[in-house]
Amino acid sequence: MSTLNNGILHLRSTRSVTEVLDSLLSLLQQKGIKVFALIDHSGEAAKVGMKMPDAKLVIFGNPLAGTPVMINVPDIALDLPLKILIAEDAGGFTRISYNAPAYLESRYSLDPGLAKNLAVIENLAAAIAG
Question: Which residues make beta-bridge pairs with 79?
Fold first, then answer.
């Protein structure tokens, strides 16, 4: 199941945040896609005495795919590298969220030839949703 909200797509998984995260990191490694950062939002909240549902943000990309897009439309660097948020929702399910490539294409008036460089995120998200 995916929903679009302000350009954000959401998929739901019955697996835990940790399982989905591990699956994503493994898949990125297999595909030779660079992980630039892993941000543990819930872990950082805990460090300051606050509690929030498990939430991890993975920032990743392939400079061979992303650089031509940023050269053509420099402002897209605000949304690149690609990001997937893996977070526990109120129902206890894991939600996988990311910017829809079609939304980014429209937002930045990307040439369809360059927009295809962003489409990998949809396959990755579907694969880790399980």
Answer: none
Tokens of 34: 């660079």
Q: How far is CA 41 from the centre of its chain?
A: 14
Residue 4 confidence (pLDDT) = 63
Single pTM value for the model: 0.93
Q: What is the largest CA-CA distance in the chain?
A: 47
Is the per-residue pLDDT at 109 higher than 60?
yes
Angle at 73 between CA 71 and CA 76, to 5 degrees: 105
* CA distances from residue 109 to 67, 73, 85, 89, 100 in whole angstroms, order as listed: 16, 9, 24, 32, 14
> In DSSP terms, which residues pair with 3 in a beta bridge?
10
**Domains of the chain (ranges, CATH numbers):** 2-129 (3.30.310.70)
